[in-house]
Amino acid sequence: MHISIFASGSGSNAQRIIEYFREKGLQAEFSILTNNAQAYVIERAKQLEVPFKIVSRKAFKEAKDVLEFLEEKNAQLIVLAGFLQLVPEALTQKYTRRIINIHPALLPKFGGKGMYGHFVHEAVVAAGEQESGITIHYVNERYDEGEAILQKSCPVETGDTPDDVARKVQQLEHQYFPKVVEELAKQLSEKQGR
Ligand code: GRF
């Protein structure tokens, strides 16, 4: 099973997923694709000895290079982990229910275009929310609107700063995203095995 992780942030989720699979001796190869040549995730790919590909935002939107890369790797599952660009229809149509994303809030609240990274946690604190959390969902043509797979929450306590919320949410991400990827990979392998 080949799993391609699209990431353009610090890459901590990408690293956690790959390390989790390796620690558990799970059969999977990984690749990392990014649309940001400066992303820290490239350093992590090199340290993890995982092949990576850099595509420009324009090339990603045109999808051709990405589709060729995924076919070359025979990718069966695509995991967005801090990848902010909308996924073009050519990809969502070909990899239906095989592209997932993690959003650092309890969708449908605090989702959609522009709601990413620290802005999410600032909005949650500003809104006086009692809780926040993560939403792992299938990806379709619209930001953050695919069917949810898993949601986990954490308390937002009085006096919590956006940084405090970010830390609690990231702990949930690192705890649950690898497990969801493992479960989905298992389901896909069984389906192919049939
Ligand atoms: C995470 O907060 C994730 O929920 C969001 O982007 C961030 C990625 O962080 N999609 P990292 O690059 O994996 O550290």
From TrEMBL:
<dbReference type="InterPro" id="IPR001555">
    <property type="entry name" value="GART_AS"/>
</dbReference>
<feature type="active site" description="Proton donor">
    <location>
        <position position="103"/>
    </location>
</feature>
<comment type="similarity">
    <text>Belongs to the GART family.</text>
</comment>
<dbReference type="InterPro" id="IPR036477">
    <property type="entry name" value="Formyl_transf_N_sf"/>
</dbReference>
<feature type="site" description="Raises pKa of active site His">
    <location>
        <position position="144"/>
    </location>
</feature>
<comment type="pathway">
    <text>Purine metabolism; IMP biosynthesis via de novo pathway; N(2)-formyl-N(1)-(5-phospho-D-ribosyl)glycinamide from N(1)-(5-phospho-D-ribosyl)glycinamide (10-formyl THF route): step 1/1.</text>
</comment>
<feature type="binding site">
    <location>
        <begin position="11"/>
        <end position="13"/>
    </location>
    <ligand>
        <name>N(1)-(5-phospho-beta-D-ribosyl)glycinamide</name>
    </ligand>
</feature>
<dbReference type="GO" id="GO:0004644">
    <property type="term" value="F:phosphoribosylglycinamide formyltransferase activity"/>
</dbReference>
<dbReference type="InterPro" id="IPR002376">
    <property type="entry name" value="Formyl_transf_N"/>
</dbReference>
<dbReference type="GO" id="GO:0006189">
    <property type="term" value="P:'de novo' IMP biosynthetic process"/>
</dbReference>
<dbReference type="InterPro" id="IPR004607">
    <property type="entry name" value="GART"/>
</dbReference>
<keyword id="KW-0658">Purine biosynthesis</keyword>
<feature type="binding site">
    <location>
        <position position="101"/>
    </location>
    <ligand>
        <name>(6R)-10-formyltetrahydrofolate</name>
    </ligand>
</feature>
<protein>
    <recommendedName>
        <fullName>Phosphoribosylglycinamide formyltransferase</fullName>
        <ecNumber>2.1.2.2</ecNumber>
    </recommendedName>
</protein>
<feature type="domain" description="Formyl transferase N-terminal">
    <location>
        <begin position="1"/>
        <end position="181"/>
    </location>
</feature>
<feature type="binding site">
    <location>
        <position position="61"/>
    </location>
    <ligand>
        <name>(6R)-10-formyltetrahydrofolate</name>
    </ligand>
</feature>
<dbReference type="Pfam" id="PF00551">
    <property type="entry name" value="Formyl_trans_N"/>
</dbReference>
<keyword id="KW-0808">Transferase</keyword>
<comment type="function">
    <text>Catalyzes the transfer of a formyl group from 10-formyltetrahydrofolate to 5-phospho-ribosyl-glycinamide (GAR), producing 5-phospho-ribosyl-N-formylglycinamide (FGAR) and tetrahydrofolate.</text>
</comment>
<dbReference type="GO" id="GO:0005829">
    <property type="term" value="C:cytosol"/>
</dbReference>
